[in-house]
């Protein structure tokens, strides 16, 4: 039982510590808070592979998470138990 607990703990800490954000989002440094999305200016958050909130070009598989307020490549869902998005980088 202890080995199962230890394995679960390692997997849990790994999933929490990996930032699933898109590579361009991780490379950009944000000085202040991200802007609020204005539907009058844009129909969607991501248009033509450019996120209007993060102001970076993203991959075709990226989606913007409203809970984390960042683009996640291979976005699956935002996990309330991990308090992190589940995406391509931490899906396993």
TrEMBL record:
Transferase keyword on record: yes
Documented EC number(s): 2.3.1.225
Protein name: Palmitoyltransferase
Record-linked Pfam families: DHHC (PF01529)
Family statement: Belongs to the DHHC palmitoyltransferase family.
Source organism of this protein record: Saguinus oedipus (Cotton-top tamarin)
Database matches in InterPro entries: Palmitoyltrfase_DHHC, PFA4/ZDH16/20/ERF2-like
Localization in the cell: Membrane
PANTHER family membership: PALMITOYLTRANSFERASE ZDHHC1 (PTHR22883:SF8), ZINC FINGER DHHC DOMAIN CONTAINING PROTEIN (PTHR22883)
Record comment regarding domains: The DHHC domain is required for palmitoyltransferase activity.
Entry keyword set: Acyltransferase, Membrane, Signal, Transferase, Transmembrane, Transmembrane helix
Signal peptide (from-to): 1-23
Catalysed reactions, semicolon-separated: L-cysteinyl-[protein] + hexadecanoyl-CoA = S-hexadecanoyl-L-cysteinyl-[protein] + CoA
Domain Palmitoyltransferase DHHC: 47-92
Gene: ZDHHC1_2
Membrane topology listed for this record: Multi-pass membrane protein
């Amino acid at each position: 039982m202890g080995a199962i607990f230890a394995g679960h703990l390692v997997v849990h800490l790994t999933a929490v510590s990996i930032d699933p954000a898109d590579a361009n989002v991780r490379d950009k440094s944000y000085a202040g808070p991200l802007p609020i999305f204005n539907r009058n200016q844009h129909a969607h958050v991501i248009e033509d592979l450019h996120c209007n909130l993060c102001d970076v070009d993203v991959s075709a598989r990226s989606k913007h998470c409203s809970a984390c307020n960042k683009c996640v490549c291979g976005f699956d869902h935002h996990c309330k138990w991990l308090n992190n998005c589940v995406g391509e980088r931490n899906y396993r």
